[in-house]
Specification:
This protein has 198 residues and is of the alpha+beta class. The chain contains 6 helices and 9 strands, in the order H-E-E-H-H-E-H-E-E-E-E-H-E-E-H. The protein folds into 2 domains: 62 residues, no CATH class; 105 residues, no CATH class. A 5-stranded antiparallel sheet has the order 1-2-3-7-6. A 4-stranded antiparallel sheet has the order 5-4-8-9. InterPro entries: DUF3501.
Length: 198
Amino acid sequence: METTMGKIKREELLTLEAYYKARPEMRQQAIAERKKRTVMLGEHLNMIFESKFLMQYQIQEMLRVEKIFEDEGIQDEMDTYNALVPDGTNFKVTMKLEYVNEADRKIALAKLIGVEDRVFVEVEGQPRVYAIANEDLDRTTAEKTSSVHFLRFELTDDMRKSLKGGAQMKVGCDHKEYPFHVESLPAETLASLIQDLN
């Protein structure tokens, strides 16, 4: 299945029957791609750098599970997931705050208000880029932050050129309750992310 640039188009989606046949292979590919494109900041902050292929897989899964085959339903799923497909100038990330224990999670989410605005990427030799968070709806209240956020990191031409030219990229969070960063990404992760940029 092609993972070219641009949004997912209707003609790129498989029918429910075709997806049923393709699913085992697509599922393996999605698991491998998600693993490659996941950056963990410490124990609890999980960042999945979304891709066109991962979003296409999500749409196919939703259509399969919900047995959606009407045009309107398919369009709704496409609209939802296309918002998370990178545009060629940015990275789109699903950020999850993961705590196994319910009580720990409650405490952490109360302490981490605003964490989604303190997550950054930093291309070697360039200024930090902080996330633009939750453009669809606000996920934070006065009492707590959400355990899931959707982030967009907008990169300048110079940053994109640097990455394509072999620069490293740091990913981090400088929220006072969760200071953590990864100095450099594994080569296969970085190579996969660079494919999102035009």
